[in-house]
Design brief:
By secondary structure, the protein is mainly beta. The radius of gyration is 20 Å and the shape is globular.
């Protein structure tokens, strides 16, 4: 009986690292060289500082039934919170949610019960347990998460349709967030397209824009 030895492809051999092509290396180098910059007009930060949320697990969007403002629901190990995405104000807090519904993985559709002005509804939560947020808007804005230097993830905002971003940084694409200090949990636009949210395991960052503004693309 003849023993057959499987020939392991080069990419599977221990200690063998796949080499980047010249194109891939150039793209990675461009991403690495791009500093964090403010988001372009009409986007404005909701707060000068990130909102601290210890043990953040995920976030989701809702709409205020009265003002029409985007709302951001935050699910953390310390309970649930609801923020006005235009003013940054925390408008509701539940430090002791029902244990059976305190995290989105308890529901098939990854939802948690709303609170405050959206009590009685359910909010889809994206983050540690899965799910996702909008990555594009109807008027041409795009959000991307890239990792040119693993494990630190970077958030890119663009008006050119996304990678490979042929134009210069700061003109059609912007590196707006660098998660080098905490794990990234969720990144996305609100369904209205008026809010950008970036959540890490330790904080929440928000940007907003007025109704009616269109992409610079």
């Amino acid at each position: 009986m003849t023993n057959r030895t499987r020939k392991v492809p080069q990419t599977e051999q221990p200690g063998c690292e796949t080499k980047l092509s010249a194109y891939q290396k150039a793209l990675r180098d461009r991403l690495l060289a791009a500093p964090v910059t403010p988001a372009p007009e009409p986007w404005q930060p909701v707060s000068e500082r990130r909102v601290p949320v210890g043990g953040l697990l995920g976030i989701g969007f809702a709409t205020h039934p009265g003002s029409g403002h985007d709302l951001v629901m935050v699910v953390s190990r310390d309970g649930h919170g609801l923020f006005d995405a235009v003013t940054g104000e925390k408008i509701a807090r539940d430090r002791d949610p029902d244990p059976e519904e305190s995290t989105p993985d308890a529901a098939d559709d990854l939802t948690c019960p709303g609170l405050g002005p959206v009590a009685g509804s359910r909010v889809h939560i994206a983050g540690l347990f899965g799910g996702g947020l909008h990555t594009t808007t109807e008027d041409g804005w795009t959000l991307e998460v890239v990792t040119p230097a693993w494990p630190n993830e970077r958030v890119l905002l663009s008006g050119d349709g996304g990678l490979p971003h042929s134009g210069p940084h700061g003109e059609r694409w912007w590196h707006i967030f660098h998660s080098h200090y905490s794990e990234l949990r969720a990144v996305g636009f609100s369904p209205s397209g008026r809010t950008i949210a970036v959540a890490t395991s330790s904080d929440l960052s928000l940007w907003t824009r007025p109704t009616g503004h269109r992409s610079r693309a």
